[in-house]
Amino acid sequence: MTKNVKMGSNAEATQINRRPQRFFGRLSAEIYYVREGQVNEYALHFTVPVPADVEEISFTWQSLAKKHLPYRINIVSPDLIALPKPSMNISWQGEIPEHIETFAIGLRCSGRESAEVDVTITVEVTLDQLTGNATELVFRRKKICLMRIDDQLRVKLADNSLSRDLFPSDYYCLGDSENRPIKWLALESIQFKQFNEASDTWAFGVLMWELCTLARQPYAEVDPFEMEHYLRDGYRLSQPINCPDELFAIMAYCWTMLPMERPSFEKLQICLQDFYAQLTRYV
């Protein structure tokens, strides 16, 4: 096996103290699990994170033997609710190609659950069909999935920590070694790291503003380090063009300074239902 098969996968390679060390953060470069005829055991022992926005991972392989090498691929994913059975664009069993080829494994989340799913990909290669001598390469992945819908097909807001991989540019570190989506946070969340239903209401108001602006960046003109002072001085997002006054009033209701003055989600539902009824009254 070590002399007959070459497999590569997307990953990052960095030199430290002149010894090659492998890092698998953003899956942005090429690394070979079998290099110069030897299995890179260091690489095989890593569990590689797959960000939420990556729905497909690829492997490049080639048979270096002068005979047919049958293979069998098995993929185990224990959480079928968050991550349905992975797909593959080649047969689950066959023969390793003699020329360099790339195959892809689909890791598409269902959106019904937020989870970090351990995915194990096993490639079994038969080296000698007469004796049945075979060997295995095991590749481990951790697929990050975000809840998007529930059982009633209702859209869910993403978990802040999980969406960090999906929208890294929206997260900022304010000198405390913790990345947070500052421009979606309530004032007390920025100041005191307080998170509760009232702070969720604030974030929901920002979401409504994003929907009305067709996904514009909130507070695009404000430096993240100035957000606390900006909000404390009473500044808020401006009313989007073509946004009805009644709808913007609901948004502003979510951004009141005192948490106890913000509406509950039950109250928001009533307000939005009343607004919808007014819109459809004359249709």
Automatic annotation (TrEMBL):
Domain WIF: 14-145
Chief location bin: membrane
Domain Protein kinase: 1-276
The organism's place on the tree of life at top rank: Eukaryota
Subcellular location: Cell membrane
Entry keyword set: ATP-binding, Cell adhesion, Glycoprotein, Membrane, Nucleotide-binding, Receptor, Signal, Transmembrane, Transmembrane helix
Protein name: AGAP008009-PA-like protein
Naturally occurring in which organism (per UniProt): Anopheles sinensis
